[in-house]
Amino acid sequence: MSARIEKVPWGKGGWAARKSCPGVSPDFFAAEAHGLEWLRQTGTLRIPEVLELGSDFLMLEWLESAAPARDHDERLGQGLAELHRSSTGVAGLDRANFVGTLSQDNRPCSNWCEFYVERRLRPLVLSRWRARFERLFSVLPGWLPDEPLSRLHGDLWAGNALTGPRGEPCLIDPAVYVGNREIDLAMMRLFGGFSPRVWASYAEAFPLSAGFPERVPLYQLYPLLVHVHLFGESYAPQVEQALRRLPGG
Length: 249
Fold this sequence. Notes:
The protein is an alpha+beta fold. It has helices at residues 28-40, 72-85, 112-121, 130-143, 182-190, 196-205, 212-231, 236-244, and strands spanning 4-10, 14-20, 50-53, 57-61, 97-99, 102-104, 150-152, 161-163, 169-171, 177-179. The mean pLDDT is 95.
């Protein structure tokens, strides 16, 4: 189900983006508005301002797209690193929200490993994969590094990273929570679209933990399972491929 975006007049000679999506939960746009403001609080990357929230629509600041500035990619990498450095609280969030149109349970857990297993993977595992996932879950506590948690975008594919009116990087459509930054980074690698300059600037500002490439398939499992539930079996082979690259899979 795709949202409809309309450019509508706002204020004195201005414009706004009116976002609607028939059939979604009554909490859908309230959750998105909260996520946008939660990211805007960091003052890192540009996030569209929430102008009005209705029961079945969201009105946002209109960001007219321009050609990327010369340093666009470097600013995106640095800004994302700054966002991830804004660690806050324990794993989770004080409210549920959505990834795409799928409900996302953010009830806090005492540690990241427990949260990722219980709030992200286990609820979406199909019965035919259950034994393989349980083997994976059994080894994760000793496999994941201990790292400070981050404020996450939560759905960071290239379609949610836009260019603003001054050529600056902007983020939209978040599915926010507090967690390990590597899940945002793994999502960025899942469908591509981010240049080597983004990655180099990020790593310079916030160096990656040792072993990150080996954990990429682990953190791609969640968005892949989401895609299986939202879009069907065409994504199942990618789940299988990711599992084969992980302990116990």
